[in-house]
Queue: 2 jobs
Job 1
Amino acid sequence: MKFKQTKYYHAAWDKHLDSILEFGLRPGPDGCVYMAGPEPAHAAQFLALRGGPTNWELNEEGKMWPVQEKADKIYVFTIYIDDLDMDKLHESFDHNANFFPPETEAVYYDDAIPPECCNLEWEFDLNSA
């Protein structure tokens, strides 16, 4: 696939900032790192739709249960595709396109992205009016 963008964005909750700066972007349970573009806000929209950071706790029955936490900021990292293995970058179809602006592009990467390729460039304060 020929990608339209030269860079994509990955949004993260403030509680994950230190880990990303130290270790980079690590794949989630499905083995992927998700990104969007062409604007940083596109990645932030994907993250915000998930409803806040989740912490897993044991409930009364001894089962793991998701608990939403409060977040104060969303950080957005710029990822340049020239820094990636193009064989591991794919278009993503994991969302309903009707929820996003028509120009939104979603992609996923089949590996970790090292910290030197994660350029922190945007910060969205969720407490500002």
Job 2
Amino acid sequence: MLEINNQYTLMKRHIDTEVLRAFFAGTLEDVVDNLPIHIIPRTRDPNRCCVYKERAMVRYRIMALLGVDIEKDDDEYKTLSSYVKESLETKTPVFPSLTTISPGCSSCPDEQYRITDSCRGCFARPCLANCPKEAIVFVNGKAHIDEKRCIKCGKCLGVCPFHAVIHVPVPCEEACPVDAIHKNEEGFVEIDREKCIDCGHCSRSCPFGAIAERSSLMQVAGMLKKKEEVVAMIAPAIEGQFPGSLGQIVAGLKALGFSDVVEVAEGAHITAAHEAEELQERLSRGDKFMTTSCCPAYMQLVDRHVPTLSELRSKALSPMGYTARLCAERRPEAKLVFIGPCLAKKIEAAQFPEIETVITFAELASLLVARDIDIKEMVVSQDDVHVKTYADCREFAVPQGVANSVIRRSEKPIQVMNINGVDQKTVRLMKTWTKRAPEAELIEVMCCEGGCLAGPGVLVNPKIANRLRQGANVATVGSKPLGGAKHV
């Protein structure tokens, strides 16, 4: 994964902010076609081949912000102002949540292992001795890899005493846990929609910005501008994303125009209680284990790739689902917007008619900047001071947080396994569970390593976010098992 703080992320946020500023000023349709030139002036030293390609990528980024599926609807003769008009008149479809930008793809060479000049041609030659396909050859005393024989097992990399072997991956392909990324005949990236689980790992890994998420941000901005009754449902991972307390975040959202703000931790309390009760029922009837149901990318992973686990995952709704139902009961006329770190939530939200749409923390940040709202300067009213009733459920955002919340609501000790991040190796392991059950009764699965704090829509490095959460006196669980649990 790319470090969150990088040039592409900063440019994306800059573009989103400029579009939103123009939108709220009522000038977007008039200025949007000139925004690429404004954002990438001729005097700029381009990161790509030239300023014209930089401007083209700004255009595509604006299209993604408007919710356009660039793979299908890229019309070079169509003005951005036309896309803006269509976007404001229609609700952005949630699927597919990701779209590829072929002109931005660098057509990366296939994954390979290379031997660098650091090779000393040593006498031991462990690379030669351990290669299963005899792909290592020596020329003039230096090791070389025969690409026709190499199976990319990586054994040479692991045994070289001089670290002379390097692995050159295709970042998006390497990041995808379900092999849904490949190159087409022209060498450009494509996403296999039948395999994709919308985890967003590919978009977070591509250093060229060639995979973009389709946004619903303009839809939310439109509702706020019209002063409609809109309720923000904030995911537990929001603490630590902005420089301020939870109360200040709530105040900032209300300053944006949200009618009310509801913590999804309230729904997480219901999820944890349901999973605790359901687990005991399953164990009593002979089930060997149950997996959690909170991560929407994991739910798609099971549906598309590991169907043998479908009956072994919890039937409880996710915290977002329960929170949406609570909000709909309290404010039936309000439109509900989920704000979180996850792209897969956009797909899950389509299952709940109560939810209008989903935006990420990164998109929320652009909205706040565009409206000149500084979270740390917000004055907290008594209404914005949230009680600690569901404090432990705010820890759904971190690894072991779901499991620990379930443990506290369980009457008996539970053996727990935590899957902190899913990759291709983990998927292969999951496929063996029905034949050889793991030594655990509850398996918590989070597709992102680092939990929801490391989702594709976050703003802050997960380690920093966790420290900020702890500094805000949040009741954190940490990594120690509680309630008599045994973590495997």
